[in-house]
């Protein structure tokens, strides 16, 4: 008999949408911009999670749990918005 202590609060996609939403909102607050709306913030947060996860893994930074996921997503989203503003000439 295999005993496992896995606790799933949300299905995976709901978890990442939630992380993306919060990371997108945090990015809007940190970058002092107009924001991208609810859906845009989620998308920026989700893309940011991929970018942040890749950057963190390249730098050897290991994250755990919700706070780690949120940190990686926010760092990635901040970088994504910064690069987007750089190329678009936005402030």
Summarize the structure in words.
This protein has 91 residues and is mostly helical. It has one domain (12-88). It is built from 3 helices and no strands. Helix 1 (12-31) packs across helix 2.
Large-scale geometry: globular
Fraction of residues in β-strands: under 5%
Q: Can you summarize the main beta sheet? A: none
**What string gives the helices and strands in order?**
HHH
Assembly state of the chains shown = single chain
Number of domains: 1
The number of distinct β-strands equals: 0
Structural class: mainly alpha
Distance between the termini: 59 Å
Q: What do the pLDDT scores average to?
A: 80
Rg over CA atoms: 15 Å
Unreliable runs? none
Q: Percent range for helical residues? A: over 70%
Question: What is this structure's SSE topology?
Answer:
Elements: H1 12-31, H2 37-59, H3 65-88
Helix pairs in contact: 1-2, 1-3, 2-3
Q: How would you concisely characterize the structure shown here?
A:
The chain has helices spanning 12-31, 37-59, 65-88. The chain has 91 residues and is mostly helical.
What structural keywords apply?
mainly alpha, 91 residues
